[in-house]
Specification:
462 residues, alpha/beta, TIM Barrel, Jelly Rolls, 2 domains, six-stranded antiparallel beta sheet, 8 helices, 16 strands
Length: 462
């Protein structure tokens, strides 16, 4: 073998021994497209709900948190002479609330329905000679007025049975032994069986703070829930609720931060959600009409929120892809007070005045959806919605208006979901377009609408 051949063979061997260049890492797979249950999607369409807090502690002058010591109040104190759940629904209809939640049992332990579980409720009161049933009346009024009914029942606290913020460990139990704990669990299961089994299908069930699971010594409520209300959406309910859950945004001010997503990384996460979350749990913002007070107290009319405050709450809840549930503080007569009713009417009227009639609207799909208004028109609001039955797809967007022969940016943001309301300064445009700059699937726009609101301050949402 001559030197030339040897040299050539060495070169060939060297080529074969060279390491191939490292392959480019593959693009990460997009997150799975999570979708709501049909019941969750229908619940998000309702947008506004009304809470009704009414308990025996309304008939005392104790402070808001005094229920811890009010489990032994004389049931004869409870005697709302004019109670009318039809009047409650008048407030809901005036507001435009499409669903509601009645607090059937709060932490005092007082039962607002006919029950023999223990002798502390309407059955032991003087109201209607002990034969009244507020839950029954409430459900009937909801059906009569077309407001979807929901029920709240506190499970982790019951002052009458000496259970205070029970979380399944001895540090928060004041009733002691295992036998009493087991008996309490049976009482809770029977209580929920009555509420969920007697009054027909509910549209919503509120678990305030969730429920202690059996593994931590709590009541076994999941079988009861699945048997009696299998298609009911739950607030902070069990993880395997068939119709799905909703979540708390982390405050009782009626608002959520922005961006706000319908998905979370795990069941019962609180706050503004996560765009890549794999659990669909949309937010519900809760707030009392009377600042800081969920129950009625005398001489607190000065705590009523103003119309401007309520509109700001609306923009920062419904306008940020969340539902809004606002509380009616039922007074000692068993009614929504007249001043409160008037404020609900004002609030509902203002929402309708601003947003019932868009100047123009359209729908579409793809990265750009254009709305032709037809002629130069003054606008300062845009409302747009995704078709959330197919998931939350948009990650970033820009709203632009065609003015003076060119496209001008009006606003931009991130999450859209069920509904996004954007405010901006007055601008005259002949066309508007939603341009999606980042998404995880083809954007599906259920609605793109524009408005000119005469009372808008002309500043964009933050």
């Amino acid at each position: 073998m001559n030197k030339q051949t040897t040299r050539m063979m060495l070169m060939i061997a060297a080529l074969f021994n060279q390491q191939a260049p490292a392959a480019e890492p593959p693009n990460p797979a997009p997150p799975a497209l999570v979708k709501p249950t049909p019941e969750q999607a229908a619940w998000q369409d309702l947008e506004i709900g009304m809470f009704y807090h009414f308990d025996i502690n309304v008939f005392t002058d104790a402070g808001e948190g005094a229920w811890q010591n009010q489990g032994g109040l004389d049931p004869s104190l409870y005697n709302p002479a004019k109670l009318s759940t039809d009047q409650w629904m008048e407030a809901a209809k005036a507001l435009g609330a499409k669903y509601s939640v009645f607090v059937a049992k709060h932490c005092t332990g007082f039962l607002s329905w006919q029950s023999d579980l223990y002798p502390y409720g309407v059955k032991q009161s003087t109201w209607r000679d002990g034969k009244g049933d507020v839950v029954k009346d409430y459900i009937a009024s909801c059906k009569k007025q077309g407001v979807k009914p929901g029920l709240y029942c506190s499970m982790n606290a019951n002052a009458h049975l000496k259970v205070i913020q029970w979380d399944g460990n001895n540090s928060n139990q004041i009733f002691g032994d295992d036998a009493k704990r087991a008996q309490y669990c049976k009482t809770v299961e029977a209580m929920l069986g009555e509420l969920w089994g007697r009054y027909g299908a509910l549209d919503y069930v509120w678990f305030d703070g969730g429920a202690v699971p059996p593994a931590k010594g709590g009541p076994d409520i999941v079988p009861v829930f699945k048997k009696l209300q299998p298609r009911t959406v739950a607030f902070q309910g069990p993880a395997d609720a068939p119709a799905g859950n909703t979540r708390w945004p982390g405050n009782e001010n009626g608002v959520t931060s922005y961006p706000n997503w319908s998905t979370v990384t795990r069941h019962r996460d609180e706050g503004a959600g996560h765009p890549d979350g794999q659990v669909w749990e949309p937010a519900e913002c809760d707030v009392p009409l009377r600042k800081q007070f969920w129950f009625w107290h005398p001489n607190q009319e000065n705590t009523l929120r103003s119309l401007d405050e309520l509109m700001d709450i609306y923009y920062k809840s419904v306008g940020r892809n969340a539902n809004l549930i606002i509380n009616a503080n039922i007074d000692r007569d068993g009614l929504v007070p007249e001043l409160d009713l008037k404020r609900f009417k004002e609030f509902g009227s203002e929402i309708r005045r601003r947003f019932t009639q868009p100047l123009a609207q359209t729908a579409g799909e793809g990265d750009t959806v254009e709305l032709d208004i037809g002629k130069p028109t003054l606008i300062n609001h845009a409302i747009f919605m995704e078709k959330i039955t197919e998931g939350e797809r948009i990650r970033e967007y820009v709203i632009e208006g065609f003015t003076a022969g060119t496209w001008k940016e009006l606003c931009k943001g991130q999450s859209v979901g069920h509904k996004r309301i954007e405010q901006f300064g007055d601008v005259e445009v002949s066309k508007v377009r939603l341009r999606v700059t980042r998404s995880i699937a083809t954007p599906l726009i259920r609605q793109l609408a524009v408005y000119h609101v005469t009372t808008a301050e002309g500043t964009p949402n933050q």
